[in-house]
């Protein structure tokens, strides 16, 4: 943001003057991430005009820092020939992300222009399902055989370096490309130059499977503080690596998705700013309609208690209060448990511990709120009426917390994302039963309405 | 979880048999993160018994993978002498995190046992305020002068490697330790052995200030896909580095904190499982009490409309519905904007764009919900009554969305965390004004109650 406002006017002048040298100098001087941020403000055609001034590898680097939605827009105005060279230079995982978003015709017209080896790689990566390790991994890893010496390894790495996403972890493969071990460049640098890799490598390499969930892979990387984790197929052959920066993107996306689901929004595929208006409206509207339907259920249930409402008008005043008590307690519980499930593994014992703890929590918090409610309500209504409000608050906190704690766990058990059990949805369910709890409590404490009328 | 259940029984047997060799073999064979996960199940004293069987550097590594709360428990049962050696071996950023949590007496009794150089480093790092770059950085970076050759540099790195958090980024300092440039180990490996570092290094190094916010630092790292970012003081002297794995932890913590704040929970310092019951009760209870107070305000406002409530009992049925419409629309809006503010920089123009967009969104979604509400309400009540419900739903969606969109932006402007504007808090504010909107709408459409009674 800071860079953009400072550098954009300069770039615009250079562009208007058609100063190709000036544009190239601009791209070569700044960090590619900064260039991407500045040119993000331009129209796609102008943006492409900037990119074509650079060498293909720099083009690819800058292009890689653009948001996916911008990348697609640029692809649509780019000439196929230059574009195919740019795609060749992109990181395998990034270019597959772009190609996946293009229509098939476009992809089929681009592929023949791309070098044979890269093309095969693209077809392979495109075949992995979305959300799997295969879909986020890169195929550009450094690998060596175990029988060479450290000194030979360092020479080989000089050759592999330009084409590897990282050379800091080196994977040791057998003749059938099965993952036999790994050694870090740090260890290589420290080792005696004459040692064989077989003598210094780690043999029990922690790896993930190509069909593992991307979020699981990201958490494994984070757990071990790795820079990259190897991805193997079911014959334990190395097929790719996932690097820490990609893992970070996955975890950030998951956190954003969970936050959206928690607020009853269907997860957006892109950032809020990049999501088209109508897509955004649909992803919010769907849930608002579901929640509205649930609210009508509450209205419908309330009809049954018409007599109570018209005879005890004071009860009406506290309807929002008792419902909110349950909903708020439920939101707290659900949010804590959903985030805990998202960031850690949980076994049956953990779940039991959580449910017991939430029950105790509901009793403690419910008792506090009950006392407070009684203290305030007694200033507004009669003693027996204040008791109705206070007891209902206690029951609502217990009921809300129980719903908030159990529903995400049940959702997970059913194989669904627990974050789908959004806070507004919990509140809506609490509302329906909440009005019943409220009126039944009143009937229990005050006796049937008929008596009052008599 | 998987490892723990498999390996724990084995370890317990070895422990019961007092088989020191067996315990040491267990620690040396597995990845330190796995060992930490398994021994996390043991009592602190037992856990310490396992650790002392290993060499100090392995002790420190395993210890570093434990959760902070466990680390503190272990420190309390550990003998000072062994503990001081373990602390010497820990990464500077990790050990400061532990020492910060201990009481001062404990720290003062430990420090004299720690080597002079490490002690000075600890005192320095302890002086940086919580949440700053200084508080998360490590002081163990690799640095070299610019006048040496690549070949000399590689030799020097062999010596520096054991004491550096990473040797993959090498920082080039002048004689006053000012940051002049950087070179990656990848570039070093590829460069001609006789080149001088001055000729191959990058000069415009992107760095952060020691007092920058940790979240800003983490985002910078993520933005540039760096493995580490240098931290400088106000004389541009290199004082530390922040590595990508630490950045990832910061971003994960921030996401968890924001999720908690969004659900009206004061952010927990530790995980849900590690937070003591009473602390958890306090952090939830505070907000529940505030929200209860807000709900009493709603009840108090409702008293003013007693006549409407007793004459139009049907109005009561739709109270939860109209309030939920506003609250849900507001939650969606607030959540999207808070997460967008957390993950990107936003300038004035972006904010204006967002507010205009949310207003349009409110009209579109409001119109949909209004139509639907009318369609369902008409089956339950008379025409004019259904119109009251439908119009109120429209107004509530507009009002809720506006509150959800503007309040976080205002909070940010006031220098507070926008995530503090939690969804339940927005719902509570929407409730208070919502009942007024509802009853005023009814009066406007149906005319004063007096007429009906007449």
The profile of the biggest β sheet of chain A is: 3 strands, mixed
Count of alpha/pi helices of chain A = 24
Give the CATH H-level superfamily of the largest domain in chain A. Answer: SLC41 divalent cation transporters, integral membrane domain
Q: What characteristic shape of chain A results from the CA principal axes?
A: elongated
Span between termini of chain A: 72 Å
Name of the CATH first level of the largest domain in chain A: Mainly Alpha
CATH third-level topology of the largest domain in chain A: Tetracycline Repressor, domain 2
What can you see in these coordinates?
The structure is a homodimer of 454-residue chains. Chain A is mostly helical and 454 residues long. The first copy, chain A, has 3 domains: 2-127, Alpha Horseshoe (MgtE N-terminal fold), CATH 1.25.60; 141-251, CBS-domain (Roll), CATH 3.10.580.10; 277-453, Tetracycline Repressor, domain 2 (Orthogonal Bundle). The first copy, chain A, is 67% helix and 7% strand. Chain A has helices at 2-16, 20-29, 32-39, 44-51, 56-64, 68-77, 80-89, 92-101, 104-110, 116-126, 133-136, 150-160, 185-190, 197-200, 214-224, 244-262, 277-303, 306-311, 313-317, 319-343, 348-377, 383-413, 423-446, 449-453; strands at residues 141-144, 166-173, 179-184, 208-209, 228-232, 238-243. In chain A, the strands form 2 sheets. In chain A, strands 1-2-3 form a 3-stranded mixed β-sheet. In chain A, strands 4-5-6 form a 3-stranded mixed β-sheet. In chain A, strand 4 (208-209), helix 15 and strand 5 form a beta-alpha-beta unit. In chain A, helix 20 (319-343) runs antiparallel to helix 21 (348-377). The longest helix of chain A has 31 residues, at 383-413. The model of chain A has no long low-confidence stretch (mean pLDDT 91). Chains A and B meet through helix 12, strand 2, helix 13, helix 15 and helix 16 of A and helix 12, strand 2, helix 13, helix 15 and helix 16 of B.
């Amino acid at each position: 943001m800071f860079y953009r406002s400072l550098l954009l006017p300069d770039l615009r002048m250079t562009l208007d003057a058609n100063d190709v040298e000036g544009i190239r100098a601009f791209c070569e001087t700044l960090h590619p991430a900064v260039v991407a941020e500045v040119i993000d403000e331009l129209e796609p055609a102008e943006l492409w005009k900037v990119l074509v001034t650079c060498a293909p590898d720099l083009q690819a680097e800058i292009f890689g820092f653009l948001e996916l939605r911008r990348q697609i827009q640029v692809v649509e105005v780019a000439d196929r020939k230059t574009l195919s060279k740019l795609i060749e230079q992109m990181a395998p995982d990034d270019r597959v992300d772009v190609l996946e978003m293009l229509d098939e015709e476009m992809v089929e017209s681009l592929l023949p222009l791309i070098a044979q080896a890269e093309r095969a790689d693209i077809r392979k990566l495109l075949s992995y399902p979305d959300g799997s390790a295969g879909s986020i991994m890169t195929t550009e890893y450094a690998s060596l055989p175990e029988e060479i010496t450290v000194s030979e390894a360092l020479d080989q790495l000089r050759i592999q370096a330009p084409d590897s996403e990282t050379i800091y972890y080196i994977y040791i493969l057998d003749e059938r490309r099965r993952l036999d071990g790994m050694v870090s460049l740090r260890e290589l640098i420290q080792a005696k130059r004459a040692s064989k890799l077989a003598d210094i490598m780690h043999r029990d390499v922690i790896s993930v499977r190509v069909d593992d969930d991307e979020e699981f892979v990201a958490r494994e990387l984070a757990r071990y503080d790795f820079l990259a984790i190897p991805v193997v197929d079911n014959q334990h052959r190395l097929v790719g690596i996932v690097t820490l920066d990609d893992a970070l993107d996955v975890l950030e996306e998951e956190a954003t998705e969970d936050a959206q689901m928690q607020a009853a929004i269907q997860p957006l595929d892109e950032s809020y700013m990049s999501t088209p208006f109508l897509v955004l409206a649909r992803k919010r509207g769907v849930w608002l309609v579901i929640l509205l339907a649930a609210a009508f259920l509450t209205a419908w249930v309330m009809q049954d208690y018409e007599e109570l409402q018209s005879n005890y008008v004071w009860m009406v005043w506290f309807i929002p209060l008792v419902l909110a008590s349950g909903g708020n307690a439920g939101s707290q519980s659900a949010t804590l448990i959903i985030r805990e499930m998202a960031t850690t593994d949980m076994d049956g014992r953990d779940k039991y511990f959580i449910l017991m703890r939430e029950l105790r929590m509901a009793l403690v918090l419910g008792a506090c709120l009950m006392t407070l409610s009684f203290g305030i309500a007694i200033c507004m209504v009669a003693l027996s009426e204040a008791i109705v409000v206070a007891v209902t608050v206690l029951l609502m906190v217990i009921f809300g917390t129980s719903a908030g704690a159990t529903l995400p766990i049940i959702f997970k058990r059913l194989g669904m994302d627990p974050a789908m059990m959004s806070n507004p949805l919990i509140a809506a369910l609490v509302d329906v039963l909440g009005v019943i709890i409220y009126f039944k409590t009143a009937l229990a404490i005050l006796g049937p309405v008929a008596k009052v009328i008599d």
